[in-house]
Amino acid sequence: MKTTRLTKGLDLSFENLPLEPTPENIELASEFAFEMWKARWADQKADWETRFGSPYKSEEPDDLSGACKFSSIFAAIVFDAGIDGNYDHQFAVKKGKIIDLNAGAADVAGLAKPYMLDPIFFGSRDHMASMKSCMPRVMDWLRAFDLSLEPTLAPQQRTAAPKLR
After folding, report:
1. What stretch of H or E contains 22?
2. DSSP codes of every residue in 72-141
3. What are the beta bridge partners of residue 84?
4. Residues 34-55, mean pLDDT to the nearest whole number
């Protein structure tokens, strides 16, 4: 699926994106997504405790389990890829190559066929609504990730080296 179904009307102007999907860049994007996933958990924890005055029952995430909607959209835009998947898992795909920032997550490891494609479910109205609900946070992730990258001139020269401050 092309990301244009999700990004219509959004400003996707970034200084340093897209990146080439090298193993180093994929690892950097995965690490960044994990930090953002933990930040999302911290936001939810603070909101819960403020609203209900009781401890949040979910533990801080150990990996990207449960994050595939967020991380696949993030990866698709970072690497100028599409998105594909099934009811249980989704991932970015570029030129037939799977880019899965969640590949090492426990929930993905527990799936018999994480990369099976389900064209009936994937992109359905309910699925699209769920993915669109992720877009505000993913856009925040993209802006932060873009700012963390070393600026370069041409997309083929872009690297994921951190900026020197």
Report:
1. none
2. HHHHHHHTT-EEEE-SS-EEEEETTEEE-TTTTSHHHHT-S-TT---TTTTT-HHHHHHHHHHHHHHHHH
3. 91
4. 96
**Are 67 and 33 in contact, with CB atoms under 8 Å apart?**
yes
Q: Facing residues of 83 across strands?
A: 92
Q: Which helix (H) or strand (E) holds 5?
A: helix 4-7
Describe the strand order of the beta sheet including 82-85 as a list of residue ranges. 82-85, 90-94, 97-99
The model's pLDDT over 88-139, given as tens digits with 9 standing for 90+, comes to 999 999 999 999 999 999 999 999 999 999 989 988 999 999 999 999 999 9
Q: SS3 of 31, please?
A: helix
List C-alpha distances in Å: 153 to 24, 132, 161.
19, 31, 14
What is the pLDDT, as a whole number, of residue 157? 56
3-state secondary structure of 149: strand
Is the Cα torsion angle 68, 142, 30, 8 positive or negative in sign?
positive
Based on the number of CB atoms within 10 Å of its own CB, is 82 exposed (0-12), middle (13-18) or buried (19 or more)?
middle
DSSP code of residue 71: H
